[in-house]
Design brief:
Layout: E1 7-8, E2 13-14, E3 19-20, E4 25-26, E5 30-32, E6 37-38, E7 43-44, E8 48-50, E9 55-56, E10 61-64, E11 77-80, E12 85-86, E13 91-93, E14 102-105, E15 110-111, E16 116-117, E17 122-123, E18 128-129, E19 134-135, E20 140-141, E21 146-147, E22 152-153, E23 158-159, E24 164-165, E25 170-171, E26 179-183, E27 187-192, H1 194-199, H2 204-219, H3 222-230, H4 237-248
Parallel strand pairs: 1-4, 2-5, 3-6, 4-7, 5-8, 6-9, 7-10, 8-11, 9-12, 10-13, 11-14, 12-15, 13-16, 14-17, 15-18, 16-19, 17-20, 18-21, 19-22, 20-23, 21-24, 22-25, 24-26
Antiparallel strand pairs: 26-27
Helix pairs in contact: 2-3, 3-4
Length: about 260
Amino acid sequence: MIHPSSIIDPAASIHPTCTIGPYCVVGAEVEIGEGCELTSHVVVRGPTKIGKRNRIFPFSAIGLEPQDFTFKGQRVALEIGDDNLIRESVTINRGTEKGGGTTRIGSHCFIMAYAHIGHDCQVGDHVMMVNNATLAGHVIVEEYAVIGALSAVHQFARVGTHAYIGGGTIVTQDVLPFTKTVARREAATFGINSIGLERRGFSKDRITALQRAYRTFRRMNNSQALEELRKDPHPTEDVKLLIEFMEKSERGIIR
């Protein structure tokens, strides 16, 4: 299952059900789980742990050194979950010592061509990154978020669960869960991502509660909106998550 043109370090651990296509390079301290496929011309460096049934397409560079001036060869790692699709020329860097040491990608993600995930990023399950989407270092992307083509997320920013970022958006602050954020002259939110939430099985009542909370956020400043949302004696779990996200924001929130 390993093409003779590929170079595999003896210190790599590759499950016997994996397929390694032509001209791949797999370094030491790389662990590749059951049923994975490296189609061709893929480079993987370690320490990197890749879970089960991942497909990685040509010219992707996985687990290479972080693009950080302070990196001096420290032992840092990359962890990737299961059932991810990583398309052509994707770059995913290992972590840095100052950032916790490990970059993590969840499971069931779709990372399209030329996307970049920088050092120490924490990417949740079911995330979609469209062509040329870019995460700087230390970015947190929560589950089911969609980052549109040619969009860039500033270091240390957070993208909330089920958020949708439109193509060509420059994200310099935190993106609220469940919302749509699209670039004009600067990034701005445009309401709840209702179509995306419907597709994921959210009921009308759940979406209506989120829309009501978003209207509160839109007509008030952040602190006033938080105070108003906290007055609800019976907030839904989604609204609780929205409040918690706002409370923990360090970079501010895109409005």
